[in-house]
Amino acid sequence: MEDGLITDAVLANSGAQRQGIWAIREDIEVLVKELKPMFSYDISLPIPYMDAYVATLEQNLKAQFPQTGKMIVFGHLGDGNLHIMITVRDDSSQSRRQVEQLVYSPLKEYGGSISAEHGIGLEKRDYLSISRSSEEIALMKRMKVALDPKLLLNRGKVVAVE
């Protein structure tokens, strides 16, 4: 708070208060039900840029989906991890791609990553270049070949090696 990174906070003064705070965090399923259909994201970025990133995302979501766009952001902010849940009341593949662009595109500007703790997999593979340079991706491919020369493990999951 002294550094101006936190503008509002709650500190538990007892075990009961701590349990109450955790109960709010753990009751995320209530929000999930209200947002269905929804898209869920796990991103990371430097803490000083979180507020600007979230403000940009919210502004862009409202501009592109003015009537239906809603989002909830939570996570373990202390390590730069944000969980983002977004609904546009349409779970079509076109809407998914539009929302993915809104979520992932600003990350490059803020030095963020398209994944904090849940990995890249198939869903995020097309966006890897937002948070990894071409040199880093080339290194990943070389490591894949070095560790799996027959390309048998997780074929085409994160990096496709031809």
TrEMBL record:
InterPro entries to which the protein is assigned, alphabetical: FAD-bd_oxidored_4_C, FAD-linked_Oxase-like_C, FAD-oxidored/transferase_4, Vanillyl_alc_oxidase_C-sub2
Keyword entries, A-Z: FAD, Flavoprotein, Oxidoreductase
Keyword Disulfide bond: no
Pfam families, per database record: FAD-oxidase_C
Cofactors that this protein relies on: FAD
Annotated FAD-binding oxidoreductase/transferase type 4 C-terminal domain residues: 1-158
One BP term from GO: respiratory electron transport chain
One Gene Ontology term of the molecular function aspect: flavin adenine dinucleotide binding
Assigned protein family: Belongs to the FAD-binding oxidoreductase/transferase type 4 family.
Identification of the protein by name: FAD-binding oxidoreductase/transferase type 4 C-terminal domain-containing protein
Organismal lineage: Bacteria, Pseudomonadati, Pseudomonadota, Gammaproteobacteria, Oceanospirillales
